[in-house]
Amino acid sequence: MASVSRHYTRHVAVSVFFTAALPAVAAVLAGKSVLLAVVAGILAVIAIVRLVRLIRYPISQTVMMSRAIANNDTMLHIPETDDPLLGQASKDMNRILASYRRDQNELETRKNYYERILRIMTHELRNTVTPIVSLTDFMIQNPELQNEENRLQAIGIINTQAHNVCNFLESYRQLTVLSQPTLASIPAAQIFGQLQTLLSSEPGYDRISFKTAGNVILHADSSLLSLALINIIRNAVQATDGIQDAYVRVLASAPGGKACITVTNNGPEIPDNQIEQIFLPFYSTRKNSSGSGIGLALSRQIMQLHGGTLTCTSHYPYTVFTLQFP
Fold first, then answer.
1. Who contacts 224 (Cβ-Cβ below 8 Å, separation ≥6)?
2. Where are the beta strands (DSSP E) in 95-197?
3. Is the pTM of the predicted complex or chain greater than 0.90?
4. Which of 10, 33, 127, 324 counts the most CB atoms within 10 A of its CB?
5. Distance between CA atoms of 232 and 295, rounded to whole angstroms?
6. By the 8 A CB rule, do 295 and 303 touch?
7. CA–CA separation, 177 vs 310, rounded Å?
């Protein structure tokens, strides 16, 4: 039916015409020539069968689409055509299938994302609560061994661990309370000027340089974008600790008319299998890190709220974080 679909309307019109006309022709010819009447009747039956097949064609396409959705088949593509009657229907079905694929991919991504967060939260909470449980079990089971000094020491440990839990949960809360951005047209140079002031007193500031390729205008929420960039720049500065001739270069440009900001550092290469993990809350490649572990996750979420993306590429000697605006 592929060739038929290109001229579907014409084939339907022809089949309808013959289906309606041939029975009448057969009736007229019946009194003159039985053979011609039989031929006309046979042609009428063929025209009816042909019309039924043509009517079933768009129905079969709809069935294919519904089965693909039911079976989670994301590869199906309905053949498109320039036919005026069938063309729009096939385009609409493909648009529905494409939307379904996007929704499925997004749901799968979210599912994996939250599963990983749940595993990390479970791991972190267990590590924090386990010492409290062990300590209190020991105190309950061995009251005769407890003196004032031991009790005060135990209370101090419990207090520290409880604060760790609170800090951990507060870090997670920050990821869930971000408001929708209030967008405005802001020169990148203005944002960079604010960042220079905010970061000027921090360790490693001398490694940071800011540059704009022309008059780059960002359609963004100034406060949220500054927060995202501070997290990324701090991460880059920490990554270059102890490296000779270390640098962090922040560049705003607009290739193809779309604004983007890149943050480049010459710190250690990030392995390919960790590139996406670094955007996971509470994940860190640094040992004994004092950070909350949500900076990059927060920055990516901010860019998503702007309708943009935050990605990372790492190939020695450069690691580049790219903030791409829509």
1. 178, 181, 302, 305, 306
2. 184-187
3. no
4. 324
5. 7
6. no
7. 19
